[in-house]
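Lab notebook, bench 4. We co-purified these components, and the gel suggests they stay together. Before we commit to crystallization screens, I want a quick structural picture of the whole thing.
Request: model the full complex, all chains together.
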Amino acid sequence: MHAETTTDRKAAALAVFKDMPREPGVAKPDPILVVDNVVRRFGGLTAVDVKHVEIQRGSITALIGPNGAGKTTFFNQLTGFDTADSGEWTFNGRRMNGVPAHKVARAGMVRTFQLTKALSRLTVLENMRLGAQGQSGESFWQALLPFIWRSQEDEITSRADELLARFKLDAKREDFAGSLSGGQRKLLEMARALMVKPELVMLDEPMAGVNPALTQSLLGHVKDLREQGMSVLFVEHDMDMVRDISDWVIVMAQGAVIAEGPPDTIMSDERVIDAYLGAHHDAPLTESELEQQLQEAEEALEAEIEEDKK
Amino acid sequence: MNWDIILSTTVKAAVGVETVWYALAAIGINIHFGYTGLLNFGQSAFLAVAGYGLAVTVTTLGLPFWIGIGVGLAAAVLLAILLGIPTLRLRADYLAIVTIAAAEIVRLIFRSVEFKDVFGGSDGRRGFSQGFYDINPYPQGTYGFWPLSFNEREMWVLSVAWALIAISCLIVYLLMKSPWGRVIKAIREDEDAVRSLGKNVFSYKMQSLILGGVLGCLGGFIYGLATGSVQPDIFGTETTFFAYTIVILGGAARVFGPVVGASIFWVLLVLVNGLLTGAVQSGLLPFMDITQVGPFRFLLVGLGLILLLVYRPQGIFGDKRELAINAR
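Here is the predicted assembly.
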């Protein structure tokens, strides 16, 4: 039933990126998130140093990069879970630097975590209900008077049930979240984030630790977010997934954004190969190839030593 | 052995003064530790500031009883805020360290020679409970039936204390059924997840610290009024640890856990005490004398608690499924 809008949204997103220059920090026509000069240092190590980056509204943007590139740290800065040493960023035109995490979420920028944070000893349904915003029953004095928040609670519950059905968790409704499998927890965390009614969903490695059978369904859910008008920014290592669902890819290495581009060509970008795949892109495929490479490397070393002697 | 006395003291312990003031302290701990996951090891300080707030207002300042109660409650709220501001943003274990230290500071100030004029040093304060017994509706006499019999003063303290316990349990029940309680329990599970869902975690932890402190501090009032006195060393760290034991015994994060836990804890202590005393007096335990009974019963109770934690770690009301999830 969404077939037409589906192609529309995807086509619209792709049309925006069609002739966009592949430069890091390239300007987007309708950015939901604009980041400038964000720096985070841990002692002598500069974990994040992003000059400028924009995230297009209504698109799925992937953030990739080798381990230690600073992707998660960058996520933490943007969502208020860690304090940046300097820099500023705006979400929907609102300045967000220095804003605490809970206010970032209220503003419509909701994240998930690399290590899933299911609230184990709460039921799946309670996990979901927690995500709803503006609950009058969450204030201390009103909580004591159930008739004040009862109708709102019913409303929240029916919204939670709808989402649970969509994520196929409705059978687990009354189970403790701690009894779910790893993949189901990822689903729950994503569904719970949607209870906040976010505009920008930030997923930190949504596929990590998910079995292949669930991967397809998770992918479908991520694509579905765009169909519902949300923007998605996600960190991922799995290039198949990145190619499958993202409209645009931003590459980070050593804390900085080094390249941007569409998913089907980004991996052939020289800078990405150098920085991201540099150590591995010519890795041996067979044992004989390995031996050959070792030999070549030894020869090169010997040549170098010879040269040094001269 | 005098079975009459052993039986009657044991039955009385189930609803007696020790049980009620420990139950109130434990209700507070249950909110902090059981529901919110705050490791508050300074609960005794909340009881102390409430008890001393009342005692000092009435004896040193000569103000009426009700103002003393107000001062005590305000002191508990203030203590919660002072403890919370520096520590609630930090990890859970820091709160444990800071609260245990703060409780000792409070106790040492109350027993210090410097402030002997105000707090009465290690003797504490007495003679502040008259305002409370003036409004005692029970005429002089003995109430109850064997083995439960109390004089009019005990009746009055116990009636008030059990009413406070009932109100506290009702408040805990209502809150923990509500969306507020959901946020509190979620904070126990994972603070960052709650933050990512737009909740001000610091504010909720502070509310929990204040609520648990205020409900717990009622125990300090009850102790002061029942005994007619407060001494600094009553509010030492072992009071806090007994309260923790009671919470775990009854089952953490259960509305009636602390109440039933307190009853069982004191019944066991009194029963073991009675049996051992009787056994020593009738020469059944020739290797012990009567002065060793007191310490020895704690040893036995400790053993009992170890067995409880091994065979029923969820306590009396707890749900083993929940514990299994936690141990994952």
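The mean pLDDT of chain B is 90. Worth comparing against the SEC data before the next meeting. Chain B touches chain A through 32 residues (CB under 8 Å).
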